[in-house]
């Protein structure tokens, strides 16, 4: 698995890591039920603090993306992810922020929908990357 962390980014490292893990799931680098690297080994591999990895893993567990047990962190089943009310509320908050920006910057529906389609196609491509192999 390839995780790219940009230390000089305005986005906190734990947030970058969370999205990189989500992309890894989307690309099927981890299947549902698969275990993730230990906090210590991933931190060492990426050259970041263990607490940063732990924070990302715990937040992903709070979202329902990961499950934690005595053996470590595992990718949750899709049904578990979809039923998480905390995740639903967080997604709605993110969408609200985007829609506020859309209105503030007067982005028309056609442009906005074009962006959504571009992003959707990009993500579909990532999701199918390993499915054809």
Care to describe what's here?
GO terms for molecular function: DNA binding; DNA-binding transcription factor activity. Residues 11-78 form the HTH gntR-type domain. Keywords: DNA-binding, Transcription, Transcription regulation. It contains six helices and two strands, in the order αααββααα. 61% of the residues lie in helices and 6% in strands. By secondary structure, it is mainly alpha-helical. Strand 1 and strand 2 form a beta hairpin. The longest helix has 20 residues, at 85-104. The protein has helices at 13-26, 39-46, 50-63, 78-82, 85-104, 109-128, and strands at residues 66-69, 72-75. It is globular, with a radius of gyration of 16 Å.
What is the structure about, briefly put?
The protein has 133 residues and is mainly alpha-helical.
Kindly list the characteristics that best describe this protein.
133 residues; mainly alpha; Arc Repressor Mutant, subunit A; 2 domains; two-stranded antiparallel sheet; 6 helices; 61% helix; DNA-binding transcription factor activity; WH_DNA-bd_sf; Tscrpt_reg_HTH_GntR
CATH architectural group of the largest domain:
Orthogonal Bundle
- Which strand order do you get reading across the main beta sheet? 1-2
**Range of strand content:** 5-15%
Rounded mean pLDDT is 89
- Globally, the shape reads globular
Number of helices: 6
CATH superfamily of the largest domain: Winged helix-like DNA-binding domain superfamily/Winged helix DNA-binding domain
The description of the largest β-sheet is:
2 strands, antiparallel
* Backbone CA Rg: 16 Å
């Amino acid at each position: 698995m390839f995780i790219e962390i940009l230390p000089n980014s305005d986005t906190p490292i734990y947030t970058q890591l969370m999205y990189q893990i989500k992309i890894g799931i989307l690309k099927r680098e981890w299947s549902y039920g698969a275990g993730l690297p230990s906090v210590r080994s991933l931190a060492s591999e990426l050259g970041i603090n263990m607490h940063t990895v732990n924070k990302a893993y715990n937040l992903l567990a709070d979202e329902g993306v990961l499950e934690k047990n005595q053996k470590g962190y595992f990718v949750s089943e899709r049904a578990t992810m979809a039923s998480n009310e905390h995740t639903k509320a967080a997604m709605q908050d993110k969408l609200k922020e985007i829609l506020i920006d859309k209105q503030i910057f007067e982005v028309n529906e056609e442009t906005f929908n074009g962006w959504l389609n571009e992003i959707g196609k990009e993500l579909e491509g990532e999701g199918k990357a390993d499915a054809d192999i």
